[in-house]
Amino acid sequence: MKRLVTSVWRWIDTRLKLSDILRATLTEYMVPANLNFWHTLGFVLVTCFVIQVVTGMLLLMYYVPDTSRAFESVQYLSNEVPYGWLVRNIHAMTSHLFVLALFLHIASTVWMRAYRNPRELQWLSGMILLGLVLAAGLSGYLLPWSQLSYWATTVATNAAGSIPVVGDDLVLWIRGTPKVTQFTLGRFFAAHVSIIPFSILVLIGIHLLFLRLTGISVPGGEERGPVRRVPFFPHMVVKEIGSVFGFLILLNVLIFYFPQINFPADALIPANPLETPAHIKPHWYFLANYQFLKLVPSEFLGVILQVVGGIILFFLPFLDTGKRRSPLYNRLFYAVVGLSILGYIGLMVWGYYS
Amino acid sequence: MPAQSTRPLDDERSDVSAAATQAGRRSFLEWLLATLLVVTGATFVRPVLSYLSPRKSGKGAHVLLGTDGRSIPYARLATEPTLVGMGVDGEPTIVVRYAGETRAFSAVCTHLGCLVKWEAAKAEFICPCHNGHFDANGVNVAGPPPKPLKRFKVYATDRGEIGLEEVSA
Amino acid sequence: MMRILVTALALSVVGGAARGQNSCLACHRQQEGDRGGPAHDWPTSVHFVNGIGCQDCHGGDARSDDPQIAMNPKNGFVGRPAPRDVPNFCGKCHEAVRDNYLQSAHAAMLQADPAAAPNCVTCHTAHKQQKVTLDLINERTCGRCHDYARAARLKEAMRGIENDVQAVTARERHVFLHGIATDDEQKAIFAVRNQAHRLTHVLEIQRILGALDKVRPDLDRVEARISVKEKVLEDRRREGNALLVLFFIGMIVAYATHKRLMHTASG
Description:
Chain A is mostly helical. Helices cover 69% and strands 2% of the residues of chain A. In chain A, helix 3 packs antiparallel against helix 9, helix 5 (84-111) packs across helix 10 and helix 11 packs across helix 12.
């Protein structure tokens, strides 16, 4: 048996030179030895994406994207199909953890200022990925056509209406019709199961390609001189596997002990366009933006400030360049970043309890 | 893809990777980890396989049972115009004689779930809770019920019970 | 209270817009006293919450802004029913409750002295009715007309099934919130509750207790079905816990392997 496997492998390898590629990308790919926990989040994010693709494919077998049957089909899949509840729960809960891990990945990149020259392009591709993952979450929310789906989507897409000039047209364009209807479900479905995941796949490829081309950033900065390096495989990979297990633990605890994070009561009853449930709020990852809009007296100003904030974040590598700066500048930088993160979390919590 | 390992900082590379991969020896821990990964993957095989396994037709035959759990004889329909019992999956089911025909419907009102009664004089099923009316075909004709009553095929079984069968939608 | 009002108001705006403008509320909300009161009470009513409109009981045309059309008897409009007509007014929908009530001492008195006798709205209110609990039988309400002792005995007679219905409902909610569909159980519980509550209106304890014995098996059946679903949840959680242990071991081994490799590499 072992001989057979070996000879098949040899046969392929002599033709494709796979072992050379594996050696170059795994055992001979050297990374800094002092990479920390935060560096394993990229691997966790790829795991999230794979989980979402696999569970998403399974869900597609039973889901019907029709407003009169969507809720029923989801009920059937989670009550009648063996382990359907598990597949659905994993898909829904991973969507939350996907965003959480992405936020941490970005925050740690900012904190370590790893986006600076020569890694600006990697940052930009990551920012586009952030937008795509949020869009995946938003579009996926509508598909079960529950009360929560319907009204959270109504509220979230309404928010786009406060953008000056183009707002109303934008809302219409997102929904496809003036109200959230079958047309909205149709386009959200298409986006969720094909447009967005394909785009994410391509961008993950680009993101990783840039990573290999520029090399991974060294924690603490490269200017301090040469650092000790270890092979990516197995040294770094086992650490990343450890983080993946940590992710699975979190996923498990949330699914079995806090199911209401996924499915509060409003998510368990079918959508009723004539009855708004009390206390409808956007998903937790839009809560800060939502609360900010409520706090700023003028809606116009609130939107403009958020757009400016988004642009600053997007072009961060060009604002905080790698050139030497005074210690005062550095201290100021960390103060601003730290306050921004705290402010974001504060707004989120405030939005949750308000 | 240009391997980044050619960067000049990697002075120690050869020693380190040699030590790690020498003779392909793997420590006990590494074998254990590999095993755990395989086990983790394997735990998801059964859920996925049963998720994908084909459904048998769920529409089985059932008989009407009384509250004592025993089947109600078909012959009783000759003397009693209405029978209520438990049918498919324990669903409260009402069987009536109407226009020379035996008909069976779910007795659960589609509005909020009270049990309907058969009013032979009006040829209607009436729900006592919010005055919903269904005609002799189970179609909601008045009051709040949003949907018709679910209908079942009804027949006498070989053992003289009242057989019920779910009709595919 | 303020919160409920605000929510109700917000709901009424949305509801009104969605259901087509309700001209009854638009006019009556601006009126004083008996003509305005019901419009202000209405958003707190369980009927309103469940999407019932004025015209569903009072008839008329709620879409018309013209009082001559909206409140025209030709359009089926019925204003405020006379006390003696109230049971039939509510009985348009609550048929079985009406039939129970009509057999009671309250109903007998309604024929004798309509102005003084208790009809439906005496206890349930006309436009603020809530989902009923046993607390509706209380000294303040019943004591307005007679000694409370007998009503208290009635309440005690109902207590057993009421508590059990509530306990089963709580278990049903728990299963439901864990993502298991309970549509059939919800309906069955509603039916049991409704059957039990309608009995109260007869006001005869022995009859009530006798009838409750017939309701009991239905409740037991729902309970049995919920138990099965609770068992399913328990089994799932047990499987989940086993996985949790596996993941924990995996995490520890992975980090230990990493540590060991790093140690070897530096040695």
